[in-house]
Amino acid sequence: MVSEHRPTRRGVLKAAGGLSAAMALGAGGVVTSASAAHAAGDGFGLRIVDRNENDARMWYYRFATDAIGWDPGVNVLLPDGYHGSGRRYPVLYLFHGGGLDQDFITFDRWGVRAWTAGKPIIVVMPDGGHAGWYSNPVSSNTGPRNWETFHITQLLPWIDANFRTYAEYDGRAVAGFSMGGFGALKYAAKYYGHFASVSSHSGPASLRRDAGLVVHWANVTSAAADLAGGTVYGAPLWDEARVSADNPVERLGSYRNKRVFLVAGTSPDPVNWADWVNETQVLAGQREFRGLLGGAGIPHEWYEEPGGHVFRDYMFRRDLDGIIARLRKA
User: Fold this and answer.
1) Does residue 69 register a pLDDT over 50?
2) Would you kindly state where each structural domain of the chain is located, as residue ranges?
3) Catalytic member of 135, 178, 199, 200
4) Is the pLDDT of residue 25 over 70?
5) 270: cis peptide before it, omega within 30°?
C-alpha cells in the first residue's frame, strides 16, 4: 500500500494486489481548471505539498491533512482531450487493495492508462493506507489515520472544485479491488447521494459471517500495518454500531437506484494460504450479498470467474463501460 517515500511510476509491480500472505488474516460549482485552484490556494482541509502536472493525462498530488498523520498521495487520470475542451466529465474513484506494496500508483503500474484510453471519464486514485480499510479507526497508536474523512470530506469536494466534473450523484462512481472493493461498497452505502455506480472486484461484502472473520481480518491487518496496535473496529470488543454501518449486507436499501457490479474468483490456489483465505471469504460474502439484493428486488450485475484473489483487468474494462453508460455523459 502506501510507502513513506516519494513515489515513482517507474516502480516494478511486486504483487498481484490484495493482502499479502503475511497479512492474510489480517454539490457545489466547479472551477474551470486545476490551475485556478492553485492560484487561489488550498482548501477543504488539504494543503498541497507536492504535485506534478507535466503529463498530459496523469496528474499527481500529495497533500498535508490533519486527517492523516503523513502526506497521502493521489493520482488524477484525465481523459484524452480534457485540456482545452471545456467539457465536464463524470468521475470514477478507484481504490487499491491492501498490502505493503499497494498504493495510489498501483493501477497506473497495472495499466489504467491503456484501459481508459479514449474513455470520457476522470479517474481518481487515492492512497488508502497499507490496511486502512477506507475507515476512521476506533484507535490508532501512530497518529491520525482517518481515511474516510480524507476521501469523503476532503478529497471528493476538492476534486469537484479543481476539475471540470459533475458534482452530483449521477456524476460519480466508486470501484475498488480487494480491500478497495470493500471500501467502494461501504462508501456507496454510507454516502448514498455521492455515487450512482459501485463496483467491487474481489472485495468483501459481509463483515459478520463466519464469526466475523472479515472484521478480525481488518483489525489484525490494520494493527500490524497501519495503526501500531490500534484497530479499525475495536478489540477485543467491536464497536458494533460501526460494524453495522459499514457492513454491505446490513445496508441493502442504500444500493437501490445504483448500478452494482460484483466480481469474485471461484478457484483460489489451495496451496497459497493467503489467496485461499481471501477469495474463499470474498466469494461466500458476495454470494450472501447477491442473494439479499435479489430478495430485495435490487438489480445487480455479478460474475464468478476462474482463479483466486487477483485483479482481472478484462473485468474492469467491462465494468468501466457500464460505469460510463450509467453516469452523466461528458
Assistant:
1) yes
2) 21-326
3) 178
4) no
5) no
